[in-house]
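It is time I had a proper look at our fold encoding. Can you supply me with one protein entry, sequence and fold together? It will help me judge whether the discrete encoding reads sensibly. Leave the record below and I will have a look:
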Amino acid sequence: MIIGFWLVTVLILLFGFVVFWGAPYVPSKKRDVALVFTELYPIGKNDLLVDIGSGDGVVLRMAADRGARAVGYELNPLLVVISRFLSRKEPKVTIILADFWRATLPDDTTVVYTFGESRDIKKMAEKIQYEATRLQKPLEFISYGFAVPGLTPTRQTRAHFLYTMNPLQ
């Protein structure tokens, strides 16, 4: 009985603390991600996708299935373990336990995917804009669920928005 209590307490803490730093865990639907990777941004072997808040890694694995390399940043240690386990047979997938706000994107990043949330989506777009300028190349930014205030998406499909973040001069 007491072990069950502590297990539930640990799970609540692991999932609960992330809400203060980012979006809560919401599993991605494979059919929605497939639509994104065919209609919104046809991902392929020349891409390196970065998933901010990669959760269980479904977006990473689906990108890898289409030939792309994929890197996920996740704050929740339990989700990192789950994602690494589910992705263990996929050499093109890397999951990093890290705070995205303190991370630097890999130099060969081409597209960034996120399920952000309303309070952080504008700040997230600014971070991607900064990275595009640092890398001196355009980055594609896919936001699931939330449009970036003040920016017009390049394309949109259902709840996904695609933005091209060009380097600033």
Remarks:
- The helical segments are 2-16, 18-21, 30-40, 58-65, 77-86, 121-135.
